[in-house]
Amino acid sequence: MAAASLLVSALSKRFERTAALSELSVDAQRGEFVCIVGPTNAGKSTLLKTIAGIHRPDAGAIWINGRDVTRLPPKDRNVSLLFQNLALFPTMTGFENIAFPMRIARVRQAEVEAGVSEVARLLRIEHVLHRRPSTFSGGEQQRVAIGRAIVHRADVLMLDEPLTNLDANIRIALRIELKKLHRELGQTVVYVTHDQVEAMSLSARIAVLHEGRLQQFGTPDEVYNRPANRFVAQFMGSPPMNILEVELSTDQGAIQLAGDGFRIPLNRLPRGQGFSRLPREVAVGVRPEAVRVKTERSPETPFAGEVFWVERLGGKNILDVRLGRNLIKVVVKPSHAASRRGLAWFGFSPEPHHLLDRATGVFFQ
Amino acid sequence: MVPRLEVRNLRKSFGDSTVVRDLSLSLAKGEFLSLLGPSGCGKSTTLSMIAGFIAADAGEVLIDGKSVKDLPPQRRGVGLVFQDYAVFSRLTVADNLAFALEIKRVPRRERRRRVEDFANLLGLAGMLNRRGASLSMSEMQRVALARVLIGEPQILLLDEPMSNLDALLRANLRTELKQIQTGLGQSVLYVTHDQAEALSMSDRIAVMRDGELLQVGSPEEIYRRPCSRFVAEFIGDPPINLIQCEVHRDGVQLVASTVRHRGLLLGSGQADSGSYLLAVRPHDVAVSREPVAGSAPAVVRFIENFGAEHVLHIDYGGELIRATVAPGFADVEEIVHVSFGCGSVGLIDLGTERLIEVEPAEDRARVSRVQAQVGE
Amino acid sequence: MPSTRRFGLGWVKTFVVLTAMVIALFPVFWLVSTAFKPYNEWQAWPPVWVSRQPTLQNYRIVFFPELAQKFAANEKGNLSYKVSGSAWKAFADSAIISGFATFFSVVFGTLAAYSIVRFGIGGTTYPFQFLTVRMFPPIAVVVPMVVLFSALRLSDTLTGLILAYTAFTLPFSIWMIRSFIEETPEELEGVAMVHGMGRLQVFLTITLPLVRGGILATALFIFILNWSEFLFALTLGGSKVVTVTVQVANYVSASSGKLYGVQAAMGTISTIPVLLLGYLIQRHLVRGLTFGAVKR
Predict the structure, then answer these.
(1) pLDDT digits (tens, 9 = 90+) for C167-218
(2) Mean pLDDT, chain C, as a whole number?
(3) How far apart (Å, rounded) are the C-alpha atoms in residues A192 and A182?
(4) Does the fold of domain B238-375 match that of domain B5-228?
(5) To bridge B199 with a disulfide, which of A202, B71, B142, B219 should be the other Cys (CB 3.0-4.6 Å)?
(6) Residue B75's pLDDT band (boundaries 50, 70, 90)?
(7) A214: domain CATH number?
């Protein structure tokens, strides 16, 4: 555990009657970029504020660089937090906003100037240093706030939805800038977002939160390819993973999945699961891009389905398909011949680890 | 046929700054048109002028061929859905729907009939007695839409209705909105800064910048044949690659040289020899693990993982270019081989920033090129 | 855009605004006008709107009480005149009481409001609870107050009135300042704390400057309340401690009734400190100091 920059163990926090965080454990290695992702009100911001010491946890512990900081006030934790609403000081110039952490630390003026100008150069905000926040554009506000957060050189840099509310294009540009910045600075980053695209593309590991509980903590590939439960499967990925109800059966040793409008073989059972221990009524997850589509019937595409809606996104098309009683989403290239309403043929080969319990929504691993 | 909405030479200034300059566009009956542009490009101002909330300095707004200059907003036949939907949380769904009809003093029986009709149409029939506060976001959108649609507006105006919502929810709501619009044949003018929303829902997109209309066309046209550098960069996620290049005209064929490529055959187009920007969508950058004809080796600097696909940021002679690949294709700091497919690029004039279309090379040229490669 | 349709509405608006202004400003006009009227015009019928023989006599009586005796001799009625002290003392007493009471009220109010907003002291209903102090009329508490104050030997002292005023304006202070603090983003404090400031330092250097305008506005409001208070001043003070309001009420003669002109003069003068104060802090009253602090 020596390398863990941040260790949060079994953290719980209640507000009045609602549990904001329930026995939540995450960690971040030194220099790691960890994303906390989840829908609105999942408890993401509460987690950050608790790590920063602004909220006091009801139970659990927080360790930063091998030090138990659970009872310490914010100022003694050496963390940096970019708030969702940025919280720039309105009466200070861009320069003084960025210099703020150094002013508190009573850094010498020459060093302050050097520090601010370096950060300003990195973030390309030299032109706003002498102005007040009320004159900044959305992107400039964002950058100044990021500048103030990184100039601190804290043990853990925490960012709360730093790109939300920006124009889509500025968001895409800043996203890759953040990634570059992290590589240059090598700081430990905990990044909160509701956007799974940001989480997937930025982080080394992702913690998926839902209703204050940790659903899964793993690398983007793990979370995407081996989701722990139905929530993770459908939250990570746009369009979300298709979940189809199927019945499990064997035919002379071959395992079959039978759903409405299709019947597919499963090459093996999920690891560590015996056929007799599995329920008959299960469900199977299929990623929209893992569905094969053709305009003709073929051995790879044996099931007939009706394309009833086509959403064109430029780089890809999303087909809404009626397969028996199931509604599924399928992603195809924009030039794909099946990108029109009407009959098409489909096929898919689910992975054993994409089998899940219909009742609990948990994948059999 | 008279268009549902026609805007002619609309102009608006606030103080010294001109927000909308000479804007003309039309909306056909049943059409879904998006006004797309960055914050402050004048798209919301345009919408407000059409709705009648602010007066234009010059120009005309015609609805069904008649000027609405002297009509207040409530008599223009437009319906406006507000950001965050503004559903009355204390009223029931039924009362929310009946709201506009009550103001218009529609008789009670008629009111009830229309509320039921629209509730059925928008899938709200089962929740007429629930209060606004108890609705989910998707239900709120439908209530907000139904409340406006029940007044049977000529044009439905939407001003960034989804900008404050979670990403996942947005993706669901836009399909839902488009299905409702198609089902009703409703004419819609939709204002957004999100290119994905515009591409996925619109019949046509009007791209705006600094108060000017840059291009109007179908999503496909806007994506495939953007008229200028700005439109090319604004549309598409991940964004388009722009690569410095020298173009030589060889008969009808254009051949480009970049910092890493020599003699890239582009196709034919209206360009003279000179310096241009080569515009290539990340999907059209061909990346392979082994060298192929016409490829150049380059190092992967970053990878953006989107689950279903990865976007490689490749060091192309000092500039980073983006290429979309299958997951697990390459690792950071790995060397890959990059080439650009013929027929999937455009050229941007460095001076005018206009896009020059490049048609795919003709068969003859392609054949001779392949032969040349065989000969090597 | 201003079409003919709106033109008519414009006149209606102007008319309504003018009427409201006339109604609001008439008493002020009458006060100033009466202050310059000689004795015989005070209660004349038909009323004298603006005196033809304006006099400073009323002001002289306010500041030089001995002149009242001469005045009485000149007029034919017997103007035996109750007030012996000059207005200077009344102004001094009022200034001390109102000033200190306002200061204490705002200081305690700010501290209390901050605790309520940021730490949830007292629970969610607390702000309503302390407002109930102001819900019953002051006259209802005057009698027990008088008894209590005499037992504590606070009757007719400056300290006593300062205490009473502070107690009775504190609910307003807390209530008003609370809303100003609620408007300042909590995250600004969070940022400062995360970067190494303690709570007290955050309060003094981050929050206080942001709500300064609000606190000054509250102070002005509380000062006006204190300055114009009459009931407590009369019952808890009145002989050794005389406030401006009590002094005005004291300009009464046994034979001729109220000295309206003198009262008007005193009233006119007593508005000057309030106007001055308002003017001085006017530039601090500008709202919107938090503009640009957070994205919305």
Answers:
(1) 999 999 999 999 889 988 888 999 999 998 999 999 999 999 888 888 998 9
(2) 83
(3) 15
(4) no
(5) B219
(6) confident
(7) 3.40.50.300
Are A296 and A207 contained in the same domain? no
Of A229, A258, A291, which closes a domain? A229
> Looking at the structure, do residues A216 and A298 belong to the same domain, yes or no?
no
Look at residue C84 in the predicted model and tell me its pLDDT: 58
Domain that holds residue A255: 242-363
CB contact under 8 A, B168 and A312: no
Is A309 a member of any domain? yes
Number of folded domains that form chain A: 2
Q: A101 in contact with C at a CB cutoff of 8 Å?
A: yes
> What pLDDT, on the 0 to 100 scale, is given for residue C116?
92
* Gap from B358 CA to chain A (nearest CA, Å): 19
Complex confidence, ipTM = 0.86
Question: What is the pLDDT confidence band of residue C289, given thresholds at 50, 70 and 90?
Answer: very low
Instruction: Give yes or no for residue A344 having a pLDDT over 80.
Output: yes
Q: CB–CB of C292 and A80 under 8 A?
A: no
A172 plus A265 within the same structural domain: no
pTM: 0.83
For residue B323, the Cα-to-chain-centroid distance in whole angstroms is 21
In order of their start, the domains of chain C are: 87-289 (1.10.3720.10)
Q: Are residues A212 and A274 in the same domain?
A: no
pLDDT band for position C80 (cuts 50, 70, 90): low
Q: Are A185 and A249 within one domain? A: no
Measured in whole angstroms, the distance separating CA B86 from the mean position of its chain's CA atoms is: 25
Q: Do A186 and A330 sit in the same domain of this protein?
A: no
Structure tokens at A93: 């110039």
- On whether residue A85 sits in a domain, the answer given is yes
Mean pLDDT of B312-316: 94
Residues A254-282: what's their mean pLDDT? Answer: 88
Of C194, C209, C289, the CB nearest to A74: C194
Could you tell me the CATH number of the domain that includes residue A314? Answer: 2.40.50.140
Last residue of a domain, one of A173, A198, A229: A229
Question: Which chain B positions have a beta carbon within 8 Å of A233's beta carbon?
Answer: none
Interface of B with A in 122-161 (CB under 8 A): none
| Contact by Cβ (8 Å): B20, B192 | no
Question: What is each CA distance from A173 to A44, A126, A139, A167, B196, in whole angstroms?
Answer: 24, 18, 10, 10, 15
Closest CA to B346 of B259, B274, B270, B263: B270
**pLDDT at residue B162, as a whole number:** 83
| pLDDT value for A153 | 85
Structure tokens at C159: 């300290």
Asked if A238 lies within 8 A of B219 by C-beta distance, the reply is no
Contacts of C292 in chain A (CB under 8 A): 88, 90, 132-136, 141
| Cβ-based contacts of A40 with chain B (< 8 Å) | 166
- Tell if the CB–CB gap between A101 and C188 is shorter than 8 Å: no
B374 touches chain A (CB under 8 A): no
- Helix locations, chain C, DSSP H: 4-35, 57-63, 65-74, 87-119, 126-131, 139-151, 158-183, 186-194, 199-202, 208-227, 231-236, 244-250, 260-281
CATH 3.40.50.360 fits B238-375, yes or no: no
Fold for B5-228, please state it: Rossmann fold (3.40.50)
Asked if A212 and A66 sit in the same domain, the reply is: yes
Any domain includes A87: yes
Using a CB-CB distance cutoff of 8 angstroms, which residues of chain C are in contact with residue A152? Answer: 195
Cβ-contact A178, A16 below 8 angstroms: no
Domain boundaries, chain B: 5-228, 238-375
Of A137, A179, A288, the CB nearest to B302: A179
Is residue A237 situated within a structural domain? no
Q: Which among C187, C209, C296 has CB closest to A87?
A: C187
Tell me the C-alpha to C-alpha distance, in Å, between residue B329 and each of A37, B288, B326.
Answer: 25, 9, 6
- Closest residue to B235, CB basis, from A138, A167, A314: A314
Contact yes or no for B153/B118 (Cβ under 8 A): no
